[in-house]
Amino acid sequence: MNPRFRTPVIAATSAVVAFFVGLLLGGHPSWLPGPLRDVFVDDQLATRAQVIHDIQQSFYKPVKKSTLEEASLKAIVASLHDRYSEYFTPAEAKAFTQSINGQFEGVGMTIDSSNTKKGLLVRMVFEGSPAKQAGITPGDLIVAVNGKTTLGRPADVSTGLIRGPAGTSVTLGVKHHGTAPMRSLKVERKQIDVPLVQTKIVQRGGRKLAVIRLFQFSKGAHDQVRAAVEKAVAKGVKGIVLDLRGNPGGELIEGRDVPSLFIDKGLIVSTRGRHSPEQKLYATGNPIAPTIPMVVLVDHGSASAAEIAAGALRDDGRATIVGEKTFGKGVFQQVEQLHDGGLLKLTIGSYYLPKGENLAGDGINPQVRAHDNPKTKRDEALPVALRALQAKLK
User: Fold this and answer.
1) Cβ atoms < 10 Å from Cβ of 203
2) Phi and psi at residue 149, in whole multiples of 5°?
3) Where does 148-198 have alpha helices with state H?
């Protein structure tokens, strides 16, 4: 052999030998000396691979390797015991993306995602929507979507499956008010054109009062609230009910900007995380209605940015809180794309109201209690809020 070829050949041969030795010993990490074990294989990864391999080889029913690997990742995140941190499989990630993507249409209802053990609780059904036409009412439970159970599944995934392009259909398993036997309803998806804000003006004691309902703190929410307030004031209203019932939150910046319409100055919310510096968000200044009497109407479905807005208005002394204890979401998350096509939604920090209160695991206690029974057509909570507003006008 030509000497000038000897070194590369020896090097290549050594690499091949090392590769096969690594393969041989990698399946048996206990055979390796400590330093080599750290180089060639990680004990935990090897154990995980061995468990998956043994189940596939010996379990009495066939199981896909991908199913076992996904279950392993879900278990890791579940071990955090954090209700907001989740691993989404590639299929679930697609549904989750649809649930937060405005280009997808749906059936026209809002869901209480606080607890899915019994299914998805319907909070609101919009007039003229496919859900309304199908006979779905507030208080119903959606227990299946296209034959897949919603019980215990992440609400983001189930609602993502309900959404889809207009003209397509989805089959919902519905229990009327959670008690009747399940019925299957095939509902056609449509473009649901529901504004973020709805306003009505009522007469109480000879005075005009505005009820401004904000459904979500999506981008541009404060602009729509501003327009609603300006129109109401122009019509001579003497007080405002800001209705945040069933509002799941949304953009943090909107959580600052909405209360800034009513508060002249001061801290709205601060955020802190283990690996992120403290951030303080203050009122933006130049409020359009800094003195008009107001109350904020909330319920258990009021969460996240809705709690930030309600808490800021309460701590400032600007508004009276009426309704039920809010959801209690005092933390925020980030979503990371993973190599397998899945997603990791992970809680990374907490936010705090102006007086330092963190709502994680608890919620805002209303100063005036009011409960609306979803089984009745009448709104029992709104009259309580209007009476509380009237008391502020005296």
Assistant:
1) 8
2) -65, 145
3) 155-162
Which range scores top for mean pLDDT: 275-289, 303-317, 364-378? 303-317
Q: Exactly one of 243, 299, 315, 316 is catalytic; which is it? A: 315
Q: Which two tokens stand for residue 184?
A: 């299957």
How far apart are alpha carbons 111 and 179 in whole angstroms?
Answer: 18
The amino acid at residue 323 is G
User: pLDDT digits over 103-121, tens only?
Assistant: 456 898 888 777 788 899 8
Please state which of the four CATH numbers 3.20.20.10, 3.90.226.10, 3.50.50.60, 3.40.50.2300 is assigned to the domain occupying 197-393.
3.90.226.10
Q: Specify which residues 214 forms β-bridges with.
A: 197
pLDDT tens digits, 16-49: 334 333 433 344 444 455 554 554 446 777 888 8
Name the DSSP class of 365: P
Domain with CATH 2.30.42.10 in the chain: 100-188
**Which residues of the chain does CATH 3.90.226.10 include?**
197-393
Of these residues, 175, 190, 238, 329, which one is catalytic?
329
Task: Tell me which of 4-13, 190-199, 285-294, 374-383 is least confident.
Answer: 4-13
What is the distance between the alpha carbons of residues 177 and 366, in angstroms, rounded to a whole number? 26
Class of domain 100-188: mainly beta
Q: Which of 113, 129, 302, 304 is catalytic?
A: 304
Cα–Cα distance measured from residue 166 to residue 36, given in angstroms and rounded to the nearest whole number: 58
Residue 309: name the closest of 361, 351, 362, 277 by CA.
351
For the chain, how big is the Rg over CA atoms in Å? 27
Q: Cα 338 from chain centroid?
A: 19
pLDDT of residue 375: 75
- Identify the pLDDT of residue 161: 84
Residue 315 among the catalytic residues: yes
Lowest mean pLDDT among 228-232, 371-375, 382-386: 371-375
Looking at the chain, list the stretches that DSSP marks H as alpha helix, in order from N- to C-terminal side: 3-26, 34-40, 43-58, 65-78, 90-99, 130-133, 155-162, 221-234, 252-260, 305-315, 381-393
